[in-house]
Design goal:
The protein is about 70% helix and about 0% strand. The chain is mainly α and about 280 residues long. The protein starts with a helix and ends in a 10-residue tail after the last helix.
Length: about 280
């Protein structure tokens, strides 16, 4: 657990430090008045001249992106994870990867539906909504977050626990619990824990973070699209079809999830490619 705690501390510190770096650059940009560091053409200086940089969507998003890059570099440089991916060289890997997409997406939908029934507070709802309308926010939520989270919580943390502990499900559960607690947002903590169990099992069966990264990116991308096109009273694209259709979606997604899980269980060998360099 010492490695797990150490990596989580690094993860949180990198987020804090990278956000401070971006804020410092923003302050310098305001002082100079002509530095353009914004990704949207012609809109940077106006955005960075916001009075409250700590709540600026662009600053937050760029901080997340920078922290993700630094954290992934840290994991690779210090050999917590391997860049080589033997999974893609195994027979039938493409089919498995394609099945992982509906497996992860349906699991995430069922988790989100359950969390919606629990009616837990969402402390980050407004921030996520603002970020879904910002190009850097979209990249941070849909791409950067899934990549760094899977590399850290599945590849580095769970991978180490699987190699050192005799009970795989305990390693999966602990890594999922840490994944949930790190989010520090009630609704996300529950959702991340449950999703972490699914993603952790997938990593355990494949020995690769690639399938979970692909599924995680797809899920977050759909969530971003949902926030952009749905009203505040509509939580998912499925709900646009009406309340009467939701139980049918739950039933359909449950069937797809079980079918994918059965296929993956039969197709994959346990813990393949979990060796550490």
């Amino acid at each position: 657990m010492k490695r797990t705690i150490k990596l989580v501390i690094y993860y949180l510190l990198y987020q804090l430090l990278c956000t401070m770096v971006v804020m410092t650059v923003a302050w310098v940009a305001m002082a100079i008045g002509s530095v353009d560091v914004h990704g949207n053409p012609g809109a940077l200086v106006q955005t960075l001249q916001s009075a409250d940089l700590s709540g600026n969507t662009t600053v937050i998003a760029l901080g997340v992106l920078l922290a993700a890059i630094v954290m992934v570099w840290h994991l690779v440089h210090f050999r917590y994870i391997r860049v080589e991916n033997d999974f893609l060289h195994t027979k039938g890997s493409i089919v498995v990867l394609l099945v992982c997409i509906p497996f992860v997406y349906t699991a995430m939908f069922l988790v989100d539906t359950l969390c919606g029934c629990l009616d837990l507070p969402d402390l980050m709802e407004e921030s996520f909504l603002d970020m879904s309308h910002n190009v850097w926010g979209i990249l941070s939520m849909a791409v950067a977050a899934p990549v760094v989270e899977e590399c850290l919580f599945r590849g580095a943390i769970e991978g180490h626990l699987l190699r050192t502990w005799k009970r795989p499900w305990l390693a999966i559960a602990v890594s999922a619990l840490v994944f949930g607690l790190v989010h520090m947002n009630p609704v996300q903590m529950v959702a991340a824990f449950l999703a972490g169990l699914v993603l952790g099992w997938l990593y355990y069966r494949t020995g690769s973070v690639l399938p979970s990264i692909v599924g995680h990116i797809l899920n977050n991308s759909v969530a971003v699209v949902t926030m952009r096109v749905c009203s505040s009273d509509t939580q998912s694209l499925e709900e646009l079809a009406g309340e009467g259709a939701l139980p049918w979606f739950i039933a359909l997604y449950s069937i797809v999830f079980v079918m994918c899980a059965v296929f993956l269980s039969k197709k994959l060998h346990r813990g393949c490619n979990l060796s550490e360099e």
